[in-house]
Recover the amino acids of this structure.
């Protein structure tokens, strides 16, 4: 394993950090009023290196069905509460401080089966434009089968049979 390809060629560094204080009004996506996704670092901001999102789910909220990605990995870090994570083999009750990494091709899913709200960080690498996915996925219930297939394919989301 080696360091990635060089992307900065300057001599003195730059002032280009991005700080998002707690009180900042969030850019968000989500699925109605049961799940909210706060965009912490979009792939546009990180130049495609990663996407980092804070996901809040109310008690008893379903997440996506079992799926996999061909081009991106997905990692979960539980901030608060208990989140049910599917690791491709079984469901795990993940609690504050627990972490799950799913490489490309790995089956996974998540939901909040508990009786309290839960929060987690969701990390995609490399970065992908997931914001459109989060903002429009709730509209797919009214879409045709062809429209759903195009949408999910465009967003590297493939469901297990």
């Amino acid at each position: 394993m080696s360091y990635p390809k060089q992307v900065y060629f300057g001599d003195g560094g730059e002032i280009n950090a991005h700080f998002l204080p707690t009180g900042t009004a969030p850019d968000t996506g989500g699925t109605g009023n049961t799940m909210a996704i706060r965009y912490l670092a979009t792939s546009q901001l990180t130049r495609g290196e990663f996407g980092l999102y804070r996901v809040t789910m109310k008690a008893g909220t379903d997440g996506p069905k079992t799926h996999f990605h061909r081009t991106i990995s997905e990692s979960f870090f539980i901030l608060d509460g208990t989140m049910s994570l599917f690791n491709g083999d079984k469901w795990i009750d993940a609690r504050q401080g627990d972490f799950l990494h799913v490489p490309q091709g790995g089956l996974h899913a998540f939901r909040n089966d508990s009786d309290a709200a839960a929060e987690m960080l969701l990390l995609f690498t490399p970065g992908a434009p997931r914001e459109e996915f989060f903002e429009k996925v709730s509209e797919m219930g009214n879409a045709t089968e062809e429209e759903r297939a195009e949408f999910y394919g465009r967003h590297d989301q493939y469901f297990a049979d």
The first strand starts at residue 28 and ends at 30.
